């Protein structure tokens, strides 16, 4: 048997490492013996805290098993890493995981930020319906970034604060997790610039279901309640053809806007491209200088008339964003949902993507986080990490597979990147192998000797480049990462649990080894912290639900 497979036969040592990681933070976790059953899926209410605590968190100390070899990645078939997968009736993109990199050969990692959250809500929809999500529906960074974290706010005039943390990895005794956290300054809705919003609604026949147009109408009415007198709203619909239902209307005339929404009815084919073109035209007609100009596209993405190919639609959004109008996509529907299109359209349109699976999620996106959804505080935000070979031998970036940039793209202001909204928190996780520990890669026989940097205390150098929301040349933030490994904070423990869950859903232990879904739920339960909206409690319920759905239930 290959050496790469032998470590997976040692689950006991792996389990001790997981328990030790929680014990270092002062928590031992006893899990509930009663995991959620498939028949209970309909009773899981997203966003609600559980009616009663079913577990207790107690003090405990478990020594870490330092002798256990690390879990090596399993080999993947060519079909497994296909760049595009189409599930029955629903379309998803499945990219291969970011590869393990040797610091001596590739010391620099560069990527664009991404604050989309649609993947988590979509995964929740599958689990609550009693099925595991397709691999392509799971994007690790969107699941981690669904949750707010307590990161440092900016203090130097920057639009966001940057913090880092390093602690042991819960699923691997030989690696550490490096967490990079970004916290944007928040703004009250009342303080936002005037908004010119275009509601672009899919009223085709595929939206004629409870999860389609009826939920869209309820969602838009939530947003109407937040409109101010200085805001403008237009309403464009499309089916076989597109048309304007409501010309730009002041936010003070809420009755007129609600009446227009209430008249919407579904039927016909889906000419999505013509609807998008008309929406941009309406956005230009109502354009507000120095204001928020944004299209909110509500659809299942099932375009079947006119321009419907993926590349042409992305190019359209890319061209139009130069006019100062951004595009946010709100995904609705089941069975024929084109998630691949929705996520990529939002990226191309300088907007964000959310999946609305119920009215509670609609409220989260368009009421509780309205400032983040509409107001941009920094554009074209890129992250770059240069690892010190004296401290780190290997690394892999968790998630952000479709956000990778070339090293030279970091300083090129013509290369597009992601936006950060007011109040947004963003998390990036690297799994790193400290120098001297056994890594994933076999040593090279003829590798040239690498020289350590002068400052051996530095783990890495973090660089963040962004453009001010008002425009202009990009600005650079640089700071060394010299955090010594510490007891993991609640935020790091919870984000690690979400990252573990995403990997377990995607590849069934390729990197997480013998860490089980039960372990993941226990880790998340040890880091619930202040959870005013019940989001972290809900996550534990979803992990337990996945455990009941997964064959064998041990992963």
Task: Explain what the structure shows.
There is one protein chain. The protein is an alpha+beta fold. It has two domains: 6-186 and 377-440 and 451-549, no CATH class; 192-354, Rossmann fold. Helix content is 26%, strand content 24%. The protein has helices at residues 11-24, 118-128, 140-144, 213-224, 254-262, 272-285, 310-320, 339-348, 359-368, 370-374, 490-507, 517-525, 535-549, and strands at residues 28-30, 56-58, 85-87, 90-92, 101-102, 108-112, 160-169, 172-184, 195-202, 232-238, 242-250, 292-299, 326-331, 353-355, 376-387, 392-398, 418-421, 425-434, 460-468, 475-481. The chain has a six-stranded mixed β-sheet, with helices on both faces. Strands 5-16-18-8-7 form a five-stranded antiparallel β-sheet. Strands 6, 15, 17, 19 and 20 form a five-stranded antiparallel β-sheet that branches. α4 (213-224) runs antiparallel to α5, α11 runs antiparallel to α12 and α12 packs antiparallel against α13. The longest helix has 18 residues, at 490-507.
Unreliable segments of 5+ consecutive residues: 1-14, 24-87
How much of the sequence lies in strands comes to 15-25%
Number of helices: 13
State the secondary-structure class: alpha+beta
- Write down how many β-strands occur, each being a DSSP E stretch of 2 or more residues: 20
**First CA to last CA: what distance?**
23 Å
Share of helix, binned: 25-40%
- Major sheet summary line: 6 strands, mixed
Radius of gyration based on Cα positions? 24 Å
User: What strand line-up does the widest sheet have?
Assistant: 11-10-9-12-13-14
